[in-house]
Amino acid sequence: MSALAEALKSAGHRSSQEQLDAIADAAFAQHPRTLDLARQYVLDAVRDDAALLWTLLERWHRPAADMLLQAAAARRRAKSEATVAAKTNIRLPPASGAKLDQDARNMPPQRASGLTIAGPSRAEMDEARHAVARVISKLDTFKVNGRPLGDCTAQEAMAWRASRVRDARFVYLAAVNLPPDRPIRDFITAAEIERLYQQAQAETANE
Q1: How many whole angstroms separate alpha carbon 190 and alpha carbon 197?
Q2: In whole angstroms, what is the distance from residue 80 CA to residue 120 CA?
Q3: What SS3 class is residue 48?
Q4: CA of 51: how far to CAs of 10, 57, 76, 77, in Å?
Q5: What per-residue string of b and e applies to 24-62 under the rule 16 or more CB within 10 Å gives b?
Q6: Nearest-5° angle of CA 145, CA 147, CA 152?
Q7: Interval 78-135: pLDDT, tens
Q8: H or E stretch covering 118
Q9: Which is nearest to 140 in space by CA: 81, 83, 89?
Q10: Are the CB atoms for 104 and 112 separated by under 8 Å?
Q11: What is the β-pairing status of strands 143-144 and 147-148?
């Protein structure tokens, strides 16, 4: 019977940690001067035993789970940013899943009590906000006569502004000093509202 079989047989009634200790003793007994062979001996012994593997890797459970969850969080952030970009009809270069996984692996594991997923740092959140600001601009979202402001000429934009100034002044003249909870038509005739419109146009002609 091999030393490995003997170690496993004698350790069968022991705890997982005691079994691992027996396997390690047998590994060094068989390969006292070659660490690589002793290591392979241990790995061969625990390869198909879930309980032994769980105990062997116990100290790395949380770091391993943290790295896995951090990679998932990175993918979620990338998907969220891609969704925002898609809603603005602007193409962004696809994120590299391999790079995200590598970045997640480089993040330090969390040591706080309980299982927590590390959120993005302040610098990462600032960079995400800046990225969103670059793709969601008032040049595209603010419309002048139904067109993005960035596509209009300065002359078109100023003409649009002048009409809005006039309209705002006109509405003010029509509503000022009237009861706040009654329709404007109850107090102003068609002729009077036309006069107020002409007044607003004259007052704002040079603005």
Answers
A1: 11
A2: 13
A3: coil
A4: 17, 10, 32, 35
A5: bebbeeebeeeeeebeebbeebbeebeebeebbeeeeeb
A6: 95
A7: 888 777 766 665 555 555 554 545 555 555 554 444 444 455 566 666 665 555 555 4
A8: none
A9: 89
A10: no
A11: antiparallel
Tokens representing 104 are 């997640």
- Give residue-wise pLDDT tens across range 123-147: 666 665 555 555 457 777 888 888 8
Q: Which residue has the tokens 């925002």?
A: 84
Q: Other C-beta atoms within 10 Å of 80: how many? A: 12
Which amino acid makes up residue 49? D
Instruction: Write the DSSP string, 72-83.
Output: HHHHHHHHHHHH
Quote the CA–CA distance of 152 and 143 in Å, as a whole number. Answer: 9
Phi, psi of 48 (to 5 degrees): -105, 15
**Alpha carbons 143 and 57: distance in angstroms, whole number:** 59
> Quick check: 68 and 116 in contact, CB under 8 A?
no
Beta bridge partners of 148: 143
- Cα 29 to Cα 38: distance, rounded to the nearest angstrom: 9
- Give residue 1's pLDDT: 41
> Under a CB-based contact definition with an 8 Å cutoff, are residues 62 and 109 in contact?
yes
- CA-CA distance, 16 to 20, in Å (whole number)? 6
Whole-model pTM: value is: 0.35
